[in-house]
Amino acid sequence: MIPRRCILGVPVCITIFFLQGSKAVAVSPPDAPMGSGLWLCQPAPRCGDQVYDPLQHCCSDDTILPLNRTRQCGPNCTFWPCLELCCPESFGPKRFVVKLKVLGTQSQCPSSPISRICPS
């Protein structure tokens, strides 16, 4: 007679054998960016009501932008809205200053560090 422990152990061993050979499949939600897998233990970044990939895009004023997008800051200057702010100076003659966005905060012109002063 075969002991009960051996009889019960065989299905467990077979199940473990099949699980080790199988590949896990990551499923993305329908509104997730292409090429994204399942992001475990982290909420997906959102811009308004859309999910975006922070390695390729940023959220600026509830708009998803590519990281390399540039915009005009004053008449003679460009800046990256994903990484910088365009700040008009209110004192003296009208000039523009590009300031760095501080990661993890709601960046604003008065409190952000200066990146560069735009030429007049």
Automatic annotation (TrEMBL):
GO cellular component: a single term: extracellular space
Single GO molecular-function term?
Answer: signaling receptor binding
Where does the signal sequence lie?
A: 1-24
Write the record's keywords in alphabetical order, separated by commas. Secreted, Signal
Transmembrane parts of this sequence: none
Which branch of life, at top level?
Answer: Eukaryota
Classification via InterPro entries: IGFL
Major place of residence:
secreted
Where in or outside the cell is it found?
Secreted
Family under the similarity heading: Belongs to the IGFL family.
Stored PANTHER family: INSULIN GROWTH FACTOR-LIKE FAMILY MEMBER 3 (PTHR34827:SF5), INSULIN GROWTH FACTOR-LIKE FAMILY MEMBER 3-RELATED (PTHR34827)
Tell me what this protein is called: Insulin growth factor-like family member 3 isoform X1
Its taxonomic placement starts with: Eukaryota, Metazoa, Chordata, Craniata, Vertebrata
